[in-house]
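Bench notes, afternoon.
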Amino acid sequence: MNTDTYAAKYIPIGCRPPSPEEIVARRTAQDLKIPTAAAVQIAAPLMAALIDSPCWLVPVPASNGSLIANLALARAIAELVLGVRVKCAVSRAYPVESSSSRRMRGLPGPTMEQHAIFRTGGPIQLLPLYFVDNVITTGTTIAACRHALGWGIGLAYADASRCPHPPRFGMGIDHCHASVR
């Protein structure tokens, strides 16, 4: 069974009033899209504590195809854990509308196929592999990355799934495991 991991949890706006911890997690997750140095300093150690080494960290491309933000996060995590290697191993065939933009328009998030994720580069040594992203909402981006490479675990700063209870992606706010549908 594939499990995905995240360091913080928040409920999306509109579901209920957020807790103070969820407000901080949401702000940090949003700032990781830029990325700001402060957000990376908050997220990297929390995410580093969730991985097994030696391993690969593969940054997830943003909806516009950019790897800049998640590559910066992956590199910061790699600096904290001995034996971690960063590899840009997936890309997008074309830009896609972001999940959050689609949800704001009342549409479902993109399907795994609509993410247009494909493998780049050659063979990769078979080690644990983590797809680094700022937030997991539905799990389809990570599923698309996993499909492109054939294996891997999602490693996100935050889980923003909408399910109220039990948490689809974990067992609490501090350290959670996610199963992707």
